[in-house]
Amino acid sequence: MSIVVENISKFYGEQKALNSVSFSVKKGEIVGFLGPNGAGKSTLMKILTTYLTPDEGKAEVNGFDVLTQSKDVQKSVGYLPEHNPLYLDLYIREYLAFNADVYKVSSSRIDEVIALTGLTPESHKKISQLSKGYRQRVGLACALLHDPEVLILDEPTTGLDPNQLVEIRELIKNVGKNKTVFLSTHIMQEVEAICDRIIIINKGELVEDKSLQSLTKNEIEHQIIQVEFDIIIDEAKIEFENLINIQTKDNISWELTFESTDDMRPKVFDFAQSNNLKILQMSKKSKKLEDIFREKTN
């Protein structure tokens, strides 16, 4: 396993940032690490990169213990933190040369990561002259510089324009073919585009850990019908087989969730007809990863 987390807990005073979190990640997986702000994502990433120590539990990266073998962990991990720390007065090549010296890697690797991250057109500039998107690329180039086995990326596409997003996603996807990538993001389309697996934490606790395929397949069986009737109707009168959830604000517009693979709109139409109701509008809402995320973290 590239990453093993066993019952990790972390406290800030009386606040429990992480509560007995456990999971493992295999080599070659691209894992999306999701959760609302304050859920504990960055805290766990800092533990895996040895910037923080856990209060309870243990963690290993590439077989190295984050507490007792921190130097070995640091050598085998490429880390892009949420707030990308850069020396703004240095030129791009200067900054990467400094880090290449720290990691004891050949200077030829600098040209490789510049090309890999699309920095070539800007490589003659100082970091202070770069847009936020290009600064993210410098951080990513630095994370890749020593060709690490594991990449830990905290919000790697922050500040990128739509074209850059596509390019960086492709880069992460390609890198993930022979490395382990563990990344946090709030962009659900990004997760759907590049991740093999989803781990969701909320209030410091793990609430979901599934492959993207199995998570979305599971949710296909749950369909949502949005319907608006012409008059107010009592919720108690709405009865359907396989109906698992009902939501309304005004007793006229309804959101009905069914556990069924069949299209339930004809059933809703029959219900309206038998109760002398007119349907003003009706639609079938597809459940997206964003909906699943909200359900798991509310």
Automatic annotation (TrEMBL):
Stored CDD domains: ABC_DR_subfamily_A
Keywords: ATP-binding, Nodulation, Nucleotide-binding, Transport
Extent of the signal sequence: none
ABC transporter domain residues: 3-228
InterPro entries from the UniProt entry: AAA+_ATPase, ABC_transporter-like_ATP-bd, ABC_transporter_ATP-binding, Motility-assoc_ABC_GldA, P-loop_NTPase
PROSITE patterns: ABC_TRANSPORTER_2
Pfam families per record: ABC_tran
GO MF: ATP binding
UniProt keyword Nucleotide-binding present: yes
Family assignment from sequence similarity: Belongs to the ABC transporter superfamily.
Protein name per its UniProtKB record: Gliding motility-associated ABC transporter ATP-binding subunit GldA
Species this protein is from: Flavobacterium okayamense
